[in-house]
Each structure stands twice: as structure tokens, then as C-alpha cells.
Amino acid sequence: MAHIEYYFATLSPFTYLAGTRLEEIAAKHEASVMYKPLDIMALFARTGGVPPKDRHPSRMEYRVQELQRAKVKTGLPLNLRPAHWPTNPAPSSYAIIAAQKAGGGDLGQLCHSILRACWAEEKDVADDAVIKSCLEAAGFDPVLADSGLLAGADTYVQNLEDAVAAGVFGAPFYIVDSGQRFWGHDRLDDLDAHLSGDL
Q1: Which residues is 8 bridged to in the sheet?
Q2: 106-129: pLDDT as tens digits
Q3: I need a labelling partner for 86 at 20 to 30 A (CA). Which of 15, 115, 118, 165 fits?
Q4: How many alpha carbons lie under 13 Å from residue 16 in its C-beta half-sphere?
Q5: pLDDT computed for residue 89 by the predictor
Q6: Contact 190, 197 (CB under 8 A)
Q7: Angle between helix 90-102 and helix 107-119 axes, rounded to 10 deg
Q8: Residues 18, 67: contact at Cβ < 8 Å?
Q9: How confident is the model at residue 146 (pLDDT cuts 50, 70, 90)?
Q10: Is the distance from CB of 192 to CB of 25 less than 8 angstroms?
């Protein structure tokens, strides 16, 4: 059975635009998934990336065009300038880490609901009430938003170290135990084909 290490950021529009495709692909191939939320700005600093606010205007204009095209292709609602972006990604990431450890709910749904809250629902994903609502909707105990803070913080830091060591430089990023790496929501078809043995 294949295993996928999934590196992502809870504030990334491209992670949001991946929707639940990873979960569909993993189910199709009976692959396991380890969810590894990380600090994308710290990752950029470690791997030569540039935060969006510091990019050249031509790169920023292209990013907006890419997001608009992806919005149409995926059919997902997307606000290009959400009210609560950027915000602190750590609390939502800690909650995902705690939920993964606790089990009992739908982790893919939790991740997508947090991303959707930011990019489509004008909610602040650093707000405890928003995080607890997402946890509950995905079948997890909302208390995880409070109880998993210390362990979540340690794992969050370790996820960044693991990402750098594994060659991750953006989000979303998928690494299969075969050694193949896939960067971006628009590479999920390639991930599917690889797991099928076609690529």
C-alpha cells in the first residue's frame, strides 16, 4: 500500500484549490496519508522562496490570473482578497495535528473546511470559534482546539524540518514513499497516474 506525506499550509489558496482530490485519490489507491501542516513563510525563507507581498509585480499579477483560472477549473468559490488573510496559521495547524493524533473524524474534511473558511467564507482561521466549528463539523471533539496546543506546536516545528529535509519548497506538496514528489494542486492528476503505475 502506498503512503503519501502531505505538506500544506492552512493559508495557501492553492492548497484550498486542491479541494478533496487528495482524499479521493488516496481512497482509490488505498494509500495512507500523513497530514503535515507547516509554516509556509518559514519554508520560503529556508528554501529560497519569496513571500507573496515581496514578489515582483509581474509575479503577483500572474498569481492572480492563475488563481482565477483555477477557480473556474475547480468550480470552488474563491475570494482573491479574503478579509482575514494573512492571519496566524498556527492555531488551525495545531488543531489538525491534534485531530490526526486523536482520530475518529474526517481529517480531509477538516483541512478543507479550514481552508474554505479563509478563502470562501470570510472567516478568520486563527479564531478559536472558527476552528472549533470546523473540528465539530468534521466529526472531531472541538476541545482538541485547546488540548492539543503543546504537542501541536512541537509537531508543527518538526513538520517544517521534515519538509526541508525532504525537498519541499511550496504548498501543497505530496511525497509518495516511492520517492516521487508532486508540487501544486495542479499535479494531482500526475500523482493519481503515478499511483496507477502509468507515470
Answers
A1: 37
A2: 999 999 999 999 999 999 999 999
A3: 165
A4: 24
A5: 96
A6: no
A7: 160
A8: no
A9: confident
A10: yes
Q: Name the residue type at position 122.
A: E
Q: At which residue does the C-alpha cell 507573496 appear?
A: 52
CATH topology of domain 3-196: Glutaredoxin (3.40.30)
pTM of the shown model: 0.95
Distance CA 194, CA 165 (A): 22
Neighbouring C-alpha atoms within 13 Å toward the C-beta of 55: 16
CA atoms of 82 and 120, how far apart (whole Å)? 8
Cβ-proximal residues to 173 (8 Å cutoff; 6+ apart), any chain: 6, 7, 8, 163, 181, 182, 183, 184
Contact present, 22 and 108 (Cβ < 8 Å): yes
DSSP bridge partners of 75: none
DSSP state, residue 166 = H
Q: Could you state, in order of their start, the residue ranges of all structural domains in the chain?
A: 3-196
Sort 103 into a burial class: Cβ within 10 Å, 0-12 / 13-18 / 19+. Answer: exposed
How many whole angstroms separate alpha carbon 78 and alpha carbon 118?
A: 9
Dihedral sign from CA coordinates of 199, 159, 103, 146: negative
Query: Torsion angle of alpha carbons 49, 53, 55, 59, nearest 10°?
Result: 110
Under 8 Å between Cβ of 113 and 134: yes
In the structure grid, which three cell numbers stand for residue 193, read together?
A: 497516474
Residue 30 is placed in which grid cell? 488505498
